[in-house]
Amino acid sequence: MTELIRHPAVAGRFYPADTYELRSAVISYSSPSKKQISAIGCVVPHAGYVYSGAVAGAVYSRLNIPQRCIVLCPNHTGKGPPLSIMSRGGWETPLGVAAIATGLADCLMEHSPLLTEDSEAHRGEHGVEVQLPFLQARRVDFAFVPIVVGTRDFEVLEALGNAIGEFLAVQTEHILMIASSDMNHYESDAVTRVKDRMAIDQILALDARELFDVAMREKISMCGLGPTVVMLTAAKHLQASKAELIQYATSGDVSGDRDMVVGYAGIAVR
Q1: N or C: which end of the chain has fewer CB within 10 A?
Q2: Whole-angstrom Cα distance, residue 239 to residue 91?
């Protein structure tokens, strides 16, 4: 059987399509490392690198990147089933092909019947893709499981988080969960910072339910709300005890336009 290779959908738009330019960009966004931490999970933005690359780079510079990762992202395209996983093949970026961790994906599907094998939801989705060059630059042998989260049903998100957490809790290896998410969208810088702070406070409190509730109540348009709820729910099973806001910015910090911005938060959970 021919191995499925998912080709880049947003190279040349969200990040450079040229190998050298992309590697240089990732390096430029990476921070001189403090002592690295072995996080259970993290929240990392997924906008174009010119806007959110510095926040993403700060997170990945801070983390010890394990050999296997689970990358959860929202569904921006509307395609595919509510919880779509790919378990075979690899994803190509200008830095090479990142392998899917097939064994890990199979185990996750065994533990959660909510997950559906599907490639259509992933084909044009950028939420996972933009994370890969940062991971490739940090660890050439990493493998990952991509999951597109296309539902905002809290009970479904909680059930998936519990299934992932129960599985990871009995593993001997370190497996990192990455929740790919931007924060509030297309309001003023001042309003966005207030709304984002409300959401960030709940992530720092490791409170998946209250994060979901405050986002709904305050109309915080955090696109990766679902992935973050799943990650926080799973993290409880791994005895998560604290979270750290590594960096925060808005698109206005780059563009100078403070009237309509998107927020970006980089957070580690451990």
Answers
A1: N
A2: 31
Across the range 58-62, mean pLDDT stands at 97
pLDDT tens for 215-244 read 999 999 999 999 999 999 999 999 999 999
Percent pLDDT > 70 in the chain is 99
The span from the CA of 42 to the CA of 196, in Å, is 16
- Can you tell me the distance from the alpha carbon of 74 to that of 128, in angstroms, rounded to the nearest whole number? 9
Token pair listed for 217:
């109540």
Query: What one-letter code names the amino acid at 121?
Result: A
Q: In terms of Cα–Cα distance, which of 238, 79, 64, 249 is closest to 167?
A: 238
Q: Would you state the structure tokens that stand for residue 33, as one six-digit string? A: 């490392």
What is the pTM assigned to this prediction?
A: 0.98
Extract the tokens encoding 7: 């080709």
What is the Cα–Cα distance from 203 to 245, expressed in whole angstroms? 9
CA gap 160, 181 in Å, rounded: 17
Minimal CA–CA distance to 181: which of 60, 7, 42?
Answer: 42
Q: How far apart are CA 185 and CA 6, in angstroms?
A: 28
